[in-house]
Amino acid sequence: MKHAHLPIVVVGGGVAGMATALAAAPAPVRLLCRAHDGSGSASALAQGGIAAALDPHDSAAAHAGDTVEAGAHHNDAAAVQWLTGEAPCTVAWLQQQGVQFDRGVDGNLQLGREGGHGTSRIVHAGGDATGAALVHALRARVQAAAHVQWRGGVDVDALLLCDGRVVGVRTCDERGRRQHIEAAAVVLATGGVGALFAHTSNPAGADGAGLALGLAAGALPRDLEFVQFHPTALDVGGHCLPLITEALRGAGARLTDAAGQPLMRGLHPLGDLAPRDVVARRVWQIQREGGKVWLDATAVSGDWNIRFPTVLTMCLAHGLDPRRTLLPVTPAAHFHMGGLATDLDGRSTLPGLYAVGEVACNGVHGANRLASNSLLEGVACGRRLGTALARMAPSYGWQGRHGWVERGDGLPPASLAALRTLLWRAAGPVREAPSLRDAWRSCTAAADAGWQMRLARSLLYAALLRRHSLGAHCLESRGRSG
Ligand code: SIN
């Protein structure tokens, strides 16, 4: 009897998962994601764009320098060199997949500016709809690819191990029906943890479920304490908040306090375009003192329907016209620099298990990611991982002792809401050791209540172990401000 070649199972329908799946051709791939149509990923919400040294006066070395500066020099130097060197051909590959980046009247790609960048180097599509444009183009390619079988509407809640190697997954659909899939390799491309915080720019599905599953199976984490807070989510109350892209500040918008005073003046040489952690802490500080922070984008020129259609539509939906009114803004959990420890080929510490995109930590972002390096990482590392997996010897089944590792039950809604508030207060843009300790104790005591509690405990523990401020992990002594 002839046995079929086992598929590579990719979990997650964002850009990292789709780039991995496409690059793995001709190996068979099963791409599993929670949403039926692949929507719901943080990739689709990404506004800014993709950083790449495309200007003749720019260089990969300068891009690398800005990446390391933003990352507080905690970055893996080889990873940074590789990623920034790979950026121009990643943009070219995306164009081959059908992504139409915005061009100026001269026909050249338009290059925007964002925080932490010493020059304009952000390519974008549909103005501020870059993530949506990438997801749309890659999804069309994936759905047309003969080697990829797409399955939406399923959660992956357990991993199958055989003699210490991950060899399959268990899926659960909306009706609770379970299915087992044996795999040549399992790739987690499940995104970050923003939705575990009280306020986030991420979709609700960015809840760390893939990270929790990998940790439950014994894969080692890295840098879990580094969570980036975006300084300008639209402050309309609630959990998942609309993002106001940093590109708007690159186009001239300015942060002000309630008295109309510029918020960032004199605080950093790059002013409003200082790295995100710096700006987010300033906004947090004003809020903590009882103030409100506003983004004044009224001087941004050009047609908003072309330059910033996403922001315009979202603001108008909340009764705010950014062309005429100041926008109330707040920091929001945005990106997890930490994750499952991997090498640049996406290999986790557990044989057979790979991770790519935000769920992974290969060290490229250091302690604080540079703006518009995340879609870049998702696509470039996804392609690299898919190519490596395609070269693996085909597998037809695993012999040995099999056993399941489950993520476990989730928290009930009220406990989850309480956990989000706890994490926001204890592990937000500014942290204090006693609050981190108290929060860690609470999560430890309630660890059996749900997997989110155990994941939060791991994050808080990592934050407690890092006793000095670094990048996005800012520690203060009680009583001090700023
Ligand atoms: C933004 O557009 O401000 C966010 C882009 C990013 O996270 O890099």
Automatic annotation (TrEMBL):
Segments traversing the membrane: none
Enzyme class: oxidoreductase
Catalytic activity: L-aspartate + O2 = iminosuccinate + H2O2
SUPFAM superfamilies given in the database record: FAD/NAD(P)-binding domain (SSF51905), Succinate dehydrogenase/fumarate reductase flavoprotein C-terminal domain (SSF46977), Succinate dehydrogenase/fumarate reductase flavoprotein, catalytic domain (SSF56425)
Species of the source: Rhodanobacter terrae
Signal peptide residues on this chain, from the entry's feature table: 1-23
Cofactor (UniProt): FAD
UniProt name for this protein: L-aspartate oxidase
Family under the similarity heading: Belongs to the FAD-dependent oxidoreductase 2 family. NadB subfamily.
Superkingdom as given in the UniProt entry: Bacteria
UniProt-listed Enzyme Commission number(s): 1.4.3.16
The FAD-dependent oxidoreductase 2 FAD-binding domain, residue ranges: 8-375
Swiss-Prot/TrEMBL keywords: FAD, Flavoprotein, Oxidoreductase, Pyridine nucleotide biosynthesis, Signal
